[in-house]
Amino acid sequence: MDPIAKLSDLVDSLKFNTMTIMPTLTGGPRKSLL
Amino acid sequence: MEEGEDDDLSDVPEWQTHEIETARAIVDDRSGRFIDPPDKFDFHEYRHMEEFIDTIHNANVAQQLARAIRGCGAFRYFKDTLAQHDLLDDWYLYRMEAMKQFAIEWAEDNDVPYKDDLQERAKAIRKNAERQKR
After folding, report:
1. Over chain B (134 residues), what is each successive 10-residue block's mean pLDDT?
2. Between B29, B40, B99, which is nearest A17 by CB?
3. Fewer CB within 10 Å of terminal CB in chain A, N or C?
4. What interface predicted TM-score (ipTM) does this complex get?
C-alpha cells in the first residue's frame, strides 16, 4: 500500500519553514517523506 | 550525485540507508514525483485572525483584538489579548480548522493522497480549554 500524507504534517508545514517533500499521484510509485 | 562519486552504502549504518536512498530519489527526480509542501507564506494567518475576530460576539473584546492586530507586533499582541479573555484555545481550534481546510485543498489540487489524523490534536486543545475554564 502506498504511504499517504498526514494532515497533521501538512498543517505543521504551514506553521514552520519545513524542508519536507510531498509525493504526488502522477509520477510512479509514491513515497511519503513526512 | 556527481559522476565518479562513490554511491556504495556499505560504510553507512543500516538505519540510514533507506533515508539516503530516499534523499537520492528526491535529488535525482526529474519527473515531478516529489513536490514541496505548502509553507507558512502560503497560508495567510493574518487574514484568518481578522476572520476569527468577526466571530467574536462581545463587541468590546472584538474591538480590543482588532486594535491588537494593527501595526507592529500584531501576532504577539493578538495572542496576549486572546489570553486576557481566555480565548487562546478557541483561536487555536479555529486556526487548526482553517489550516486543515487549506491543507486538504492543497493536497487535492496537487494529487497528494492524505489522511485526516487531526482529531486527537483537536481533542487535546478542547481538553486544555476545559481545564483552563475550571
Report:
1. 60 83 85 82 92 97 96 94 95 95 93 90 88 78
2. B40
3. N
4. 0.75
